[in-house]
């Protein structure tokens, strides 16, 4: 005979509903005049956890490998460059602001997918998104900010912590009228 008593039937456990997209962690838009200060403060906050930061001796190799991996996975319309500060990803095909926004967001995420896989692995970095548009005014600024938030959502939904992402305020620039130019800067987080 079995010495264990028969199992009692379990009560069904109600699963929580998936969180709506609107409740996703927000990433603030940093004004241009505060960008350097906020980037420095964010890096210092990330460096408090050793998993989020590297020692300075590892920075060059880490960024070289990251650069190579990003270059391999980048779509032909995306330029990846190694800079003194880190790695810069330049979406040099200016993205049209006149496209339907929903389709633009899907296209942006599709283009970002191979890069997000790499960035998810390289957690010891800060990712700053910066957009420029020509004749940026009160009418076009909300559209530009929605598009850049779309990029941010792609990064976060791919598993990149919102603590690692900054949005720098959009700026007016000499690009074709009605277009948007996006740049992503990836900088190392170094522990002191």
Question: Can you give a write-up of this model?
Answer:
α2 crosses α3 and α3 crosses α4 (141-157). Mean pLDDT is 81; it is low at 15-24. This protein has helices spanning 35-47, 59-73, 101-121, 141-157; strands at 29-30, 79-82, 87-96, 125-133, 165-172, 179-188. Helix content is 34%, strand content 22%. The longest helix has 21 residues, at 101-121. By secondary structure, it is α/β, with parallel strands linked by helices.
Structural class: alpha/beta
Order of strands side by side in the largest beta sheet?
1-5-4-6-3-2
Task: State the share of residues found in helices, binned by percent.
Answer: 25-40%
Mean pLDDT equals 81
* Shape, principal axes of CA atoms: globular
The largest sheet, given as strand count, sense and whether it forms a barrel, is: 6 strands, mixed
Radius of gyration of CA atoms, rounded to a whole number = 21 Å
> In angstroms, what separates the terminal alpha carbons?
65 Å
Return the string of H and E elements: EHHEEHEHEE
Q: Which regions contain 5 or more consecutive residues with pLDDT less than 50?
A: 15-24
Short description:
With 192 residues, this protein is an alpha/beta fold. The chain has helices at residues 35-47, 59-73, 101-121, 141-157, and strands at residues 29-30, 79-82, 87-96, 125-133, 165-172, 179-188.
Short descriptors:
192 residues; six-stranded mixed sheet; 4 helices
Write the layout of secondary structure elements.
Layout: E1 29-30, H1 35-47, H2 59-73, E2 79-82, E3 87-96, H3 101-121, E4 125-133, H4 141-157, E5 165-172, E6 179-188
Helix pairs in contact: 2-3, 3-4
């Amino acid at each position: 005979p079995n010495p264990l008593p028969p199992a009692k039937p379990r009560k069904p456990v109600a699963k929580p509903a998936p969180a709506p997209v609107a409740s996703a962690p927000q990433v603030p838009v940093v004004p241009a005049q505060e960008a350097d200060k906020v980037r420095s403060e964010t890096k210092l906050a990330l460096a408090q956890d050793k998993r989020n930061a590297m020692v300075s001796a590892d920075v060059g190799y880490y960024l070289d490998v990251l650069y190579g991996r990003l270059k391999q996975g980048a779509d032909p319309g995306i330029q990846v460059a190694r800079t003194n500060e880190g790695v810069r990803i330049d979406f040099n095909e200016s993205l049209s602001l006149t496209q339907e926004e929903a389709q633009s967001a899907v296209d942006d995420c599709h283009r970002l997918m191979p890069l997000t896989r790499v960035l998810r692995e390289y957690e010891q970095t800060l990712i700053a998104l910066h957009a420029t548009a020509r004749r940026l005014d009160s009418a076009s600024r909300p559209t530009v900010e929605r598009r850049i938030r779309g990029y941010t959502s792609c990064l976060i939904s791919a598993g990149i912590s919102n603590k690692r992402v900054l949005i720098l305020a959009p700026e007016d620039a000499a690009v074709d009228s009605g277009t948007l130019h996006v740049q992503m800067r990836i900088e190392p987080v170094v522990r002191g």
